[in-house]
Amino acid sequence: MKVLVLSCNTGGGHNAAGRAILEGFLRRDVQCEMRDALSFASERVSKVVSDAYIRTVTVAPKLFGWCYRAGGAISSARRKSPVYLGNMMYARALGAYVEENRIDAVVMPHLFPAETLTHYKRRFGLRARTYLVSTDYVCCPFFEETEVDRFFIPHAALVPEFVRRGIPREKLTVTGIPVSARYARHTPKAEARERLALPERGNLLLVMTGSMGFGHVDRLVDAILPILEPEDHVAVLGGNNEILKKRLRETFAWDARVQVLDFTERVDLFMDAADLLFTKPGGLTTTEAAVKGIPLIHTHPIPGCETLNMEFFGELGMSVSADTPEGLARLAQDLLRRPEKRAAMIQRQRENVPANAADAICEFVLREAGEI
């Protein structure tokens, strides 16, 4: 059996989900590869689209939020959206690759390739089965204009929303959001800190900015410092945003309790080392944190899916959030002082966020293909 995982480089979350699925198939000795869907248009198109997305959400997040709301308003299974029309343009190239390589199943943690293969399937037919993986705790705009064989969604509570948007209930399977298996493994806190050369004593507050370094992190760290005890520390994972990291290092050079770190592949180990996590409410990072089981404080979201992710987690008691850096710091202080509240939050995460979503997706696909 041959499986193709298709993602896009619009943020790190979709690719992280894709890699988790890829890992799951490879562990089962299934022939599987992962590709950037937009590269079938061209590498230049992929870079232009990805760069435009990153610039919009970093420079003009309110504009991005407006576009998201507008997309939700016009999204309909009865007409083709601009997103659908744009992704039609490389349908022949992607469809031909799937057919010529005799791909049996295409798993997509991103809307764009699902739109593309929907168009190809309508025009030419498609032998491969297709699966769309939701990487946010919401039915995103334009999902309903795709014709895939199955939607893998994060939580049973979201089924009514997907159905209201026009997706047949019989096509929905609740699996959770796929994350790497390393988030389900737990390293003792002392060992994790030793491996990362972090201070052995005191509370460690981890601040994540996302793969591209979003957020008003300097204001947040400034608000956190007054609540810290002398032995406590703040570690900021600055992603790939070199300007942000330089500014933070200059701003907090006077306080040895603040460490600003570069992009890392060891986020799971940092979570093991930490006592609290501050992160924007991206679907993947939030899920990784919940699978790891760490008290979670959501920072300012990118308007759109992240706002809804934050609301979903908050309503189920899996995270807390506030509108200001000072409010976020007060929440951290409260959690640090109340171990029973931290324990209750972690329990709610365990009850609502499965650690084995990638395995569930792989096994479903293989079962449908008669491989297990």
Automatic annotation (TrEMBL):
Residue intervals of the Glycosyl transferase family domain: 216-351
GO cellular component term, pick one: membrane
Diacylglycerol glucosyltransferase N-terminal domain sequence ranges: 14-179
Record GO biological process: glycolipid biosynthetic process
Keywords: Glycosyltransferase, Transferase
Gene Ontology molecular-function annotations: hexosyltransferase activity
Pfam families listed in its UniProt record: Glycos_transf_1, MGDG_synth
Family: Belongs to the glycosyltransferase 28 family.
Full protein name: Glycosyl transferase
Taxonomic source organism: Candidatus Pullichristensenella excrementigallinarum
